[in-house]
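In this supplementary section we document a worked example of the pipeline. Step one takes a protein sequence of length 281 as its only input; no multiple sequence alignment statistics are reported here. Step two produces a three-dimensional model, which step three serialises into structure tokens for compact storage. The input and output of this example are shown verbatim.
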Amino acid sequence: MQKALKKYFPIFALPTLIAFIIAFVVPFFMGIYLSFCKFRTVTDATLIGFENYTKAFANKDFLNALIFTVKFTVVAVITINVLSFLLALLLTKGIKGTNIFRTVFFMPNLIGGIVLGYIWQLIINGILLKVVGADLTYDANYGFWGLVILMNWQQIGYMMIIYVAGIQNVPPELIEAAKIDGATSWQTLKSVTIPMVMSSFTICLFLTLTNSFKLFDQNLALTAGLPARKTAMLALDIYNTFYGRTGWEGVGQAKAVVFFLIVAVISLTQLVVTRSKEVEN
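The serialised model returned by step three reads:
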């Protein structure tokens, strides 16, 4: 059986490999090349060196978007993971109707980002207009916290499911041994549950980190970068540069390459750090 699988594996893998090369590998390297070019279409690209990168880092909108995205990511990653872990702890205590609660909390993740953005725009604007007489586009802080609320509402249920799976895999005998040794609930959580759930933390931190950095459709629907592009995140700023400014396609592509490098470095660093904790534990 194994010999047959090895014999025919290339035949079955080849279509997928070809599709992957055409849809991902070729556009990826072409995008890197175009970031060093001035172009309107891929057929009229002219090499201009690092000029696009110079313009990108000299662009205040890009730097503001980078700072805004980093702030948002830090807040979103912390709040989502803390709240989802606490929910997971609560829903693994044998409460009646646990399965219903899990389903309800997970459902927001099934709604598309654009639809979700417009729904929360109506909700938050309605509250703000009654309380302060303004909407999300009046102040960048309103937009920031609006995005945090939206992201939490959408992502908490999904991360909660991952934490629930991790908590349920903690050997009961470890918890029992901790109780026999006189450990308090907090000590058991800190010294037994959390170390044993580190693999779930690795997954959830990676997902929330990358999702927060790459946020686009919710940002577009909720604030569209207003006021004055102060709430535009990196993905939206790249979109506006590439499609909104004639002759800046190369700059938009350079921003996209920088964006990819930032996300890759941060996410890989996080994976290495959290996986090292798994090994230690």
